[in-house]
Fold:
Amino acid sequence: MNRFFSPLSSLLAVTIMAAAGGCTSPLAEMMVTAPNRLNPYVTAANPLPPIECLVGVDEQFRVQVGPPEATLSVSIIEPSDSNRPKGTILVIHGILARSLWMLDTAKTLSNAGYRAVLVDLRGHGRSTGGLLTFGVQEARDLSQVIDTLEDRNLVDGPIGVYGISYGATTSIHLAGRDRRVKAVVAVAPFSTVRDEIPHFGRVMVPGIGWVIPEQTYQRAIDEAGRLARFDPDRDTALEAIRRTSAPVLLMHGTNDWVVPHRHSERLHAAAPGHSELVSVPWYGHTVIWIDPTSEVARRTRAWFDRWLTAPQI
Structure:
C-alpha cells in the first residue's frame, strides 16, 4: 500500500497544482481515473496465478460486465462447516485497494456460516476498466456479478453486501438499484462526491489541496461526471439509501479524517426507518478497517444474522 501511495500522491499533487492554475481538466480526469491506470506495480500481463488462489479461496473466476465493458475478478469463500450457507454476502473493498485486503472479513463471514464473495471493483486489483463513478457504474457491475452467481448456482439464502469506504458507498448504491440485496453493512461510507472529493484532496495533499478554490473543485466534479457518465447531484448514496428497503447498518469512526463521520449521519437521516448508525469512538478511517477491538466484526455478524437468517418456526 505504501508503495502505491507514493507515486499516487505525487501525481495527485501535480494534478492539484495544475487545477490551482485554473485548469479543471487534469483534476477531473484524476477523479475518475482507475487506480490500475495509475499504479506502476499492476500489469495485465502478470504471469503469476491469482494470489487469491494461494490464500484459501475456494473458487476464483472472472465476470464480464458493462457497458462500458470490463472484466471483474471474483473469489468465493465457502462456509467453514459443511452446512448449506445461511446467506451469500458480497464483500467490497475501498478505493486504491483490492479484494485481497478484505480476506479477513470474508473469512469471518464464512466462519459464521455465510458464503463470502470477494470482488475486485472495476479498475482495481485484477479487474479491468479505466474509469470510476463513485459507486454508480460499480453497482451496475455488481448486479451483473449477482446474475453470474445465480447462473453458477452460487447464491444460497438471502443476499447481503458488506463494504468499506468507497466499497461502502458502492454497497448502498447496489442496494438502491437491486432488490435482491436484503441487508447492507456500510463501514465509513461517503454520502456525496461533492462533499467528499474536495475534502479528500485537501487531506491527501496538505497545503496544495487547500489552494484550490471550492468552485474549482465543483467545476472539476461536473466535468468528471461528464467524462465517466454519471450525475454527481442525482447519483448519490443519499438518493440510493432512500430507494432501497434493505436494512442498512452504518458504522463510522468518530475520529475519521479521511471520510468524516458526518457522512454517515447524513445517510442515516436520509433513511431513518431502515438504517442504524453505530458511531465507534476514537476510530479513524484505517483503524476501523483493522478493527482492533473486533467491534465492527461483532456488529456485522449480528446484523446479517438478524436480517439474512430465516426466522426459526
